[in-house]
Amino acid sequence: MDRISKPHLVNFLRMSDKSHWLHPRIRYASIRSKPQLLQDLRKHFRTRLQPDPLGGGEGTLRFLPVRPLPCVPKIEYSFRERCFLFDGKPREKPDDDRVCAFRIVKGPVTLVFH
User: Fold this and answer.
1) pLDDT at 48
2) Which DSSP state fits 94?
3) Dmax over Cα atoms in the chain, in whole Å?
4) Could you give the CA distance from residue 63 to residue 34 in angstroms, rounded to a whole number?
5) What is the DSSP letter of 72?
6) Residue 62 has pLDDT above 80, yes or no
7) pTM: predicted TM-score of the whole model, two decimal places
8) Measured CA distances, 89 to 18, 43, 56, 61, 92 (Å)
């Protein structure tokens, strides 16, 4: 788990919190250090490194829940693609949760509803 970047860990924890996967919640503020985040994650998950089936790569890191979590998908981290995989599929645009859907413009504005 130490080889996963802190921004990827924070995005994973943000999504886990939004989906209510982990109880008690893990605080994922940017002021917390990476070792603190990893320590909290190890309370909820055990990990197992799986070799790359194509060879030559680092493979994937599987996250296995310590306690049964029925609503949580199969979670893996691909070192080749450098992203989390949920049920074998990468989540598209991991920063979508933080993008604002509006902008402030000075002057007259026209709203269009589709």
Assistant:
1) 94
2) T
3) 59
4) 17
5) P
6) yes
7) 0.73
8) 19, 25, 21, 14, 9
Would you state the structure tokens that stand for residue 96, as one six-digit string? 């979508």
Mean pLDDT, residues 56-83 taken together? 87
* Range 30-58 average pLDDT: 85
DSSP 4: S
Which pLDDT score is estimated for 80?
87
Q: How many CA atoms lie within 13 A of 56 on its CB side?
A: 1
Identify the H or E element spanning 8. Answer: helix 6-18
DSSP class per residue in 15-67: HHHHTT-SSSPPP--TTS-HHHHHHHHHHHEEEEEE--TTSSS--EEEEEESS
Q: Which residues contact 75 (CB under 8 A, 6 or more apart)?
A: 45, 62, 63, 84, 85, 86
